[in-house]
Amino acid sequence: MLNAVDGWSKCQISDTPISPAHALSAEGSPCRTDVLRKEFHAMNVYKRRRLGDPRQSSQVIQDWSLSAVTLAIVTVFFIAKTCGATTLQPDVPPAREGLGYHPDNGTTVATTPPWFSWVPAQGEVTYDVEIQEEGVTSSTRSWHGIKYALFTPELVLPPGKYRWHYRVRESLSSTGPWSRWRSFVVPPEASPFPRPSIDTVLQSLPTTHPRMLITSQDLQWVRALRKTHREWYDALTREASMLLNEPLMHEPKPWTGGKWNAAEWLTYYRQIVRAAHCTETLAFAYLVTGDRRYAERAREWLRVFASWDPSGTTSLRVNDEQAMHIMFSSARAYSWLYPLLEDGERKAVQTMLTARARDAYRHLHLSETPYEQFPYNSHNGRLWHFLGEVAIALAGDVPEAREWLDYAMTIYYGWYPIWGQLDGGWAEGLHYFLSYHEFVLPWLWQLEKVMKIPATRKPFYAQAGNFLLYTAPPGAAVSGFGDFSENPPSGKRAWVAAALALFTGNHELQWYALQIGLSPHDLTPFRFLTATASRPSPAEPLLSPKLHVFPLTGLAAYNSNLADPKRNVQFELRASPMGNLSHSHCDQNAFVASAFGDPLFVNTGYRDYYGSPFCMEWYWHTRSHNAVLIDGHGQKRDPAAKAAIIAHGESDNFAWLCADASPAYSDYARRVRRYAALLDQKHSVKVVILDDIETTAGALEILYHTRVPMTAKGTAKVFEFQTTHARVKAQMFSNADIRMEVSDHYTTVPVQTGERPSGPPKEWHLQVRVSREIPQNIITHYQVITLIDISPAEQSEASVAHARAFRWGTIPVLRWQEGKGKARRFFTLSFETTAPAVRLEVASQSSRLPDEPFQEALLWQQDEEKLTSLLSLDGILALPVNRQ
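^ that's the sequence the OP posted. Answer follows.
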């Protein structure tokens, strides 16, 4: 995992594509999952549509052809099933969306022990695993009868080199051959994170109720909060008293005409969210206050849920949001109200939760794509820990609870969170970082506070706060990327930050939470516990570095003044090795920006409903982002549409990065790189973007989007706009013809749902067409520079004067001047494209660089040392170079 980006860059930045044969070779290339195609996805989409999954109801499968590799895998499985046999052969090539084998050869792991995964065998099988130090056979440790193809041992491995293998076991006497050995390294800095056994976990559970979030031993201090935290106590009682009057929800009806539709789904979604909130909040308020009114109403809600058919309209198959909200809210309320429930009530709730837990376990583990090997289903990313909560609530009453809890612990101590990387980023974007943490944080509280299991020692949580701090600082006006990123950051991020601060002791996160503000509105039991718990003292974050890169997630975030929203200019760019899937968009190498509290360059449109025509034709499409189209083509919505931030640097007031999205455009271009350089000048920020593209296409479209009108002057190659607090002026340069066109409409119309009856806000779209007349199939090297000046709105005019671009050898150079008289300064940016780097030089006098225009690029390779001497001006900034 630690070398994921290095492995990606070694394989993907080259001009030679990787063949499927090499990618699935016995040597286990770290990039084999990069060789991805759409056939397996098409099969999964077909399966989901066949089962009535509404999330794929509008998706049309255009290509049902199978690659040779996928066809071979399907054939093997088909023969095994039709013959009634179990294949015991190991080392089966992983499916397109599967995890495959971890740790693979040469992997340096982040935790000790690491988690181990392999391709699951068909049928009723278990597995054996052996681990040994490299070259020390006497050090072999063995585990037998492992149930899942995902395994984390209980022991900590000391730093060193190891290898592992596994085999499939059908019975005590029938085993398959051992797999090949796979080597890995445990570095000295690996975080100890052994998994406790299921017996240890069950022993940590209280045998009495309540046992969800708080125990009977906690009731005394919880009820004392009436005196010590009166503000939050009163907020909870106000919320609960209001919920007493909330009408009970009726069981949802079948979809009209038997087909899922957005309007009914949204109606029932709102109802079940409110119903779940009523159920758990009223039950919890009874525990805190002792007021029986709250308990009696919560019991009514439990009886309502228990009366519904678990296999009907609220089942996972029909509407998983209904099922999941019923599971977690009922499990908590059941435990909190346990002494008050009559035997019949208790039995009815147990029966309902058992049925739903069985359904969840089947859905997660017993499907054709078991979640432990196919982790990229977003909703399953909640379902597994809701299953764990039900298991905790029913432990001791339902024997299967042991199996369900063991499964939840297997996922958590395995690869979870699949969207969260070691750098602390979240590949699905800020909205899903927040919403999924609001769901999972009670599970972490349960493990840490009730069961005394140190669950938040995962390396991810040590860095997760940086994702909030840098991508959504106080006063942020943009939300990065992914679904719902058209909205400003949600206020719920204060609650997530406060909880993470509580778990990790992060003082900066506590400062962040207080800056955003903890609102008592819609107070939940977990928010109440977070607000009243002892948290670290706040500390304002350091303002350096200004550029923070999340290389594994594939995100760069720049803030000129993170602590002061009125002075901050924010710039974010996405280039993710995780591709374009789930709630991510087709927006590799896209950027967003804001300044002084105003959104500037934005993602456009809105999600009317998941998978809608508007989603596919605009909202998810590359054309809705500040990105690039090649001959009108955007990126695929596919895990293979990868990118990476391959280099970056920062010194004083200057920062830069280089992102490579070549795999995301592999059908249309040989190389697609975007450089971004940012110069903080205290009262303004210069953003310079170089798009460096090699393609046979005759034209590119570089796209910019705003929420205020733009003025474009095509002859001058300039565009500009102004918001309430910011003024933006940009000038473009290219070695090809440039034409500009501004529009204020979409290519298709969104559905106006009840959530947003007025539709998306007014937005403007600038299409910069860059074209050259070239012979067919001849590769052309396009280089387009955009110089963007972001200044306060009250500044009378942009500070840039006499900007021009040219090439010196193969290096694009941009020069401009600012100021007058003795205050005049000359700025020179040079972009090294062979070994990516950006250099800034500031001088009080103009240098003697040749006046070669950008359009008439020199044709010879310039010696770098000679170039450096020619560019030797006063005030050179020596930049450190970080290559990922």
